[in-house]
Amino acid sequence: MLPVPGLKVVMPPGVVDNYNTGELVIEGKTKKVWHLKDNPGFVIVVSKDRITAGDGEKAHDLEGKAAISNQTNKKVFEFLNSLGLKTAYVKHTGEKSFIAKKCEMVPIEWVTRRLATGSFLKRHPGVPEGFRFSPPLQETFYKDDANHDPQWSDEQIVSAQFKLNGLTIRQDEVEIMRRTALVIFEVLEKAWAARDCALIDMKIEFGISSLGDILVADVIDSDSWRLWPSGDKRLMKDKQVYRNLSTVTEEDLDTVKRNFKWVADQLDHLIPPPSSRVIMITVYTIHI
């Protein structure tokens, strides 16, 4: 994965989990992404023991979070790969790291919602919390922390003419990402339902590979979704618990970490064994 074109962070090479790294591609709030010196088509993504909210305005160190997030990400992406979805994820490499195909990232977050909650309620006064969207509602947000990730329309995305690894993002590409995001949500929603847990909403990101393929990229962990066991908001196991805290104690952080560990453990039951029949989903890029 690569940052948005024009944004580049250069740091000296080194070694991460026995892989020789080149330049640091980018350092975000909760991860670092390094070029792989001996494998130029790939990067290594390293999670941090850090939790943030509110575009980074709220942040705390949280020992053990990186390993839990990396396990969660591993299990989700292995599940998606087993279904035949195109992702950037390649393999788990260490307690806090994984290898991914090198991509240029589409600077858009794709949010899929089954129930109205969170920021949706603030933007749509009068809609009751828990309002059910059928089919799921999809929204897109431009990644811009300084402006709090404003919501964008299809027209804005297409008009931006993002050109990534030679592919210009037009309406066809927007539709591919929209349909892929919906498939991912519905597959994971059914998988979580089998564990008596409701997937309320989730966000994903896409990258464009050197071959011009649209891939599900970045990470998917407990920062990426809302999960309510038995459909009960009071039992939430996601990062919203941290967002809701007006003050944060060590005991609070321990609760957040236990919730994240619960999610990672539950994912063991979502992964189909190798003998299971898998669903092959192929998404074709249309060039006009």
Architecture overview:
The structure is a single chain. By secondary structure, the protein is of the alpha+beta class. It folds into 2 domains: 14-104, Phosphorylase Kinase, domain 1; 105-269, ATP-grasp fold, B domain (D-amino Acid Aminotransferase, Chain A, domain 1), CATH 3.30.470.20. Helix content is 26%, strand content 32%. The chain is built from 6 helices and 17 strands. The protein has helices at residues 65-82, 119-123, 154-160, 171-193, 240-243, 250-266; strands at residues 14-16, 19-27, 31-36, 42-47, 50-53, 58-61, 89-94, 97-101, 103-105, 108-115, 132-142, 151-152, 163-164, 167-168, 197-209, 214-217, 225-229. Strands 9, 10, 11, 12, 15, 16 and 17 form a 7-stranded antiparallel β-sheet that branches. α1 (65-82) runs parallel beside α6 (250-266). The chain is globular. The chain starts with 13 loop residues before the first strand and ends in a 22-residue tail after the last helix. The model is unreliable at 4-11 and 275-288 (pLDDT under 50).
Number of strands: 17
Mean pLDDT: 91
Q: Write down the oligomeric state.
A: single chain
Low-confidence stretches: 4-11, 275-288
Radius of gyration: 18 Å
Helix/strand-derived category reads alpha+beta
How large is the count of helical segments? 6
Give the termini distance in whole angstroms.
Answer: 26 Å
CATH architecture of the largest domain: 2-Layer Sandwich
Helix percent band: 25-40%
Q: Which overall shape is indicated by the principal axes computed on the Cα atoms?
A: globular
Helix and strand run: EEEEEEHEEEEHEEHEEHEEEHH
CATH superfamily annotation of the largest domain: ATP-grasp fold, B domain
Q: Major beta sheet, specifics? A: 7 strands, antiparallel
